[in-house]
Structures are given as structure tokens and as C-alpha cells.
């Protein structure tokens, strides 16, 4: 069933960005989180005791997201995060989550354009891949194209709508192809079937498993704090598979920051980062 909202105002079209995502921090001098590392290597990295970003104490003995970066006064996690985004942008993103200002599946208004939206098969409406929110295209008084919220899918028929949508099914097929290629490259085994992967992505409710923040799926580059990706819980190079049991949905930006750090280590760091929005 579609739930319409005639009071929705036209949303401003926002151009997407394509930030350069940094590579994972080198860890040649470090070992895994449960093991000790070379403290002599880290002893000269920073004179301070706390990260200037998240304010957590630096970790000098274990491989951690809180290890001090060799250049600057931040930890490895904050150094990576602020290498592709401004602190003010992070503040606004976290503040919108805290205040409940986001819509049901993430702040889609940032990407309301033909670059990220696609037309629903057999319909004049537009949506993001696997999104239950539908938009109508119109021309404003300045003769510019814009999209306004038209309706939201509210019942279990949403899955059938996605399966009938050519772009949605192709989107999932491409995701599966990427997983398969990465698994083969790592000489790994096990790739989720198309049906299982689509079901998993839809029922993830577009929610980041690392942060609990909602995002949006897209076939194209965009703001990494708003767009989603698939992540392996156990990395492929550590004998992880691409089966559903080893997959999780994450926001691209935070997935990039997490890298191979321990999940609990990352959550501790993220809880500290969230305090930025309360300062």
C-alpha cells in the first residue's frame, strides 16, 4: 500500500560529490588487536595523550583505531575520517540523527537528482535502488527539474515492486558480481545467491550495522556518510566468505574508517565521535 503525503514540499536538488576515499592505514608495524605491538615504534608518534578529534586516550600497546597517527595529533580513526570530510559536515550529520530529522531510510534529499534516482519500471515515479520512497519529477517556475516526495511503500508488497523493477534487480546483480569477483580474487569460497542477497539488502532497512544510522543505496559515487555499501564481517583474506552470514550493510564512510579494526574497538571510537554533535 502506498501512503501519500500531499503536504510534502519540493526538495532542493543537491549535487552529489565524489570524495577521494583514502586507503587503509598501513599496519606493517602492528599486529592484531589481541596482541601487543612494538611500543618503540609508537612512542615517537605523538607527544599528547588524547586524540584531538574523538578525545579518547591514545593506545600504545595494542593494534587499535586509537593508535596515534604518525603525523598530527589525532588517532588513526579520526585521521582517516577527517581526511575525506569536514568536522562541520560530521557535526550536521550526527546532529540530524540525534534530533530525528532524517526520513525513514536516510536523508535522501541530498541526492534527489537523475544521477542517483531511477524511474520505476512501468511507472512515472522515481526512487533509489531498493527504496520504498517514491518521487515525482516536475519542473519549477525557474524551468529547472526537481523531485518531490509522492508516496511511501508501507506493506510487504515492496519486495515484489523491487523484483519487477529492472534497475533494482540489475543493481543487486552488480553487487553480487562485485562480491563474486572479490571472493575469487581472494581465492575464497561461497557467494550468496541473487535471491538471498536481494532479500538481505531489502530487509537491512537501509541501516548501517556499525553505527545504526540509516543511509541510501546508489549505483553511483556520492557522500560517503549517506550512501551504503556491503561489508565482510570477517575479511576475505582471513578466510571470510561472501555468504549472507558474513555480510553486513554499512555506510561507506564509516566502513572505510573501520577497515580491519576490531568491531568493539570501532564501536568504542564511534561512541566518542558521536559526542561531537552534543558539544
Q: Which tags fit this structure?
A:
single chain; 279 residues; alpha+beta; three-stranded antiparallel sheet; two-stranded antiparallel sheet; 28% helix; globular; disordered N terminus
Give a quick rundown of the structure.
The chain is of the alpha+beta class and 279 residues long. Helices cover 28% and strands 12% of the residues.
Walk me through what this model shows.
The chain is of the alpha+beta class. The chain has one domain. It contains eight helices and seven strands. It has helices spanning 39-42, 76-81, 87-98, 158-164, 166-185, 194-203, 252-258, 263-274; strands at residues 2-4, 118-119, 126-127, 133-139, 145-153, 228-232, 247-251. The strands form three sheets. The chain has a three-stranded antiparallel β-sheet, with no helix packed on it. It has a two-stranded antiparallel sheet with strand order 2-3. A hairpin with a 6-residue loop joins strand 2 (118-119) and strand 3. Helix 5 (166-185) packs across helix 6. It is globular, with a radius of gyration of 21 Å. 34% of the residues are buried. Residues 3-47 and 101-106 have low confidence and may be disordered.
How many domain modules? 1
The string of secondary-structure elements, in order, is EHHHEEEEHHHEEHH
Instruction: Give a short account of the largest sheet.
Output: 3 strands, antiparallel
Q: Work out the radius of gyration.
A: 21 Å
Which secondary-structure class do the elements indicate?
alpha+beta
- Please, how many helices? 8
Global outline: globular
Biased composition (Polar residues): 17-27
Region (Disordered): 1-27
